[in-house]
Amino acid sequence: MNTPLVSIWTLTYNHAPFIRQCIEGVLMQKTTFPFELLIHDDASTDGTADIIREYEARYPDIIKPIYQTENQFSKGGGIYRKFQLPRSQGKYIAICEGDDYWTDPLKLQKQVDFLETHPDYTICGGMWQVLKEGITEVTENEGLVRDMAKFPNGRTVTLQNYLDPYLLQTLTVCYRKECYNMEKRNQIKSSIDITSYAILLEQGKGFIFPDCFGVYRIHQGGIWQGKTYEQQLCMIVKNYRELVLHFGNKSKSIRKKYFENCIELRFIEMKTRQHLLTDYLNMARFTFSGKINDVISFQIRHFTHKSRIHFINYCRKRFI
Q: Phi-psi region for residue 240, left (φ > 0), alpha (ψ -120 to 50) or beta?
């Protein structure tokens, strides 16, 4: 078999109900080049590994698994860097988690063709749909459709604006492996995917295809969906604080998102505290101090909006 041009990363843990659809979405890709599917099974206990072995036996030149006997995520993660990147032969990297799946058989071909002819771009993605647990039909991501409506031929994103709105969904991305700065990635504690995309966008532009490439599955077995909203916000704020430290001077959208989530978390925390007035004044001081520099107008608007919502909800609970 020729050297793969694309290495596809799939992380899976207890995805027995989903992993077949994920693998089939990769195998249906129609390309003029070879690709490899690097599956990392993180010590699943539900039969996921058995399903992967079945496909490995049928497609040994494409499917190359790692079967862990101990869960690596619980030891601190970093699975992409520790296990997937070192064994990737491809010039390009694509990702599809074990509970998601691709629906466009030309996904990889479209992305590779674009990156091969646009050397100033380091990453590209596309549209995606959502499948919620308990629902049999996929639904459109309404926010995504609205954000992309003005860009029927695709949209270019940069480090400066790529989170406003956020369009690089991991399920859809394909990027140049050579542009993944491992040294810088190891310096950053943040574990979220947008950290990797920020590193890639430091070195070039990104492109969002208007095509729908796959389906993002929402279910209680997912790591993210299993957390409360407050727990999610705590993680987001922690990660964005790292991003502001490393990329804040280059990305207005990162600075805005950091502030937005800080205020959101503080309003939620106020619900369980007794010193509401003190907390509120501290938030106001943070807002009007201009700590996020050129997004001060956004800070004021967002703080005012959240204050109004909080006040209305407080009055409803207190007087109605």
A: alpha
Instruction: Give CATH 3.90.550.10 domain extents, the chain.
Output: 6-218
CATH topology of domain 6-218: Spore Coat Polysaccharide Biosynthesis Protein SpsA; Chain A (3.90.550)
The answer to whether the beta carbons of residues 122 and 168 sit under 8 Å apart is: no
Alpha carbon separation from 84 to 12, 39, 81, 216, 253 (Å, rounded): 12, 8, 6, 21, 29
For 6-50, the pLDDT digits (tens) are 999 999 999 999 999 999 999 999 999 999 999 999 999 999 999
CA distance 122 to 113: 13
Residue type, 257: K
Neighbours of 194 (CB within 10 A): 20
- Tokens linked to 144: 């995504």
CA separation for the pair 13, 200 (Å, rounded): 27
Q: Where are the beta strands (DSSP E) in 42-120?
A: 63-67, 92-95, 101-102
β-partners of residue 66 are 40
Closest CA to 257 of 144, 146, 162, 163: 163
- Report the C-alpha gap between 189 and 133 in whole angstroms: 31
Sign of the alpha-carbon torsion through 183, 88, 29, 54: negative
How far apart CA 145 and CA 214 sit, in angstroms, is 14
Tokens of 34: 């070879």
The per-residue pLDDT for 300 is 65
- Chain position carrying tokens 């369980």: 272
Residues 167-184: tens digit of each pLDDT: 999 999 999 999 988 778
Measured between alpha carbons, how far apart are the two ends of the chain, in Å?
A: 71
Q: What is the pTM of this model?
A: 0.85
State whether residue 60 is helix, strand or coil: coil
Q: For residue 280, give both structure tokens.
A: 């509120």
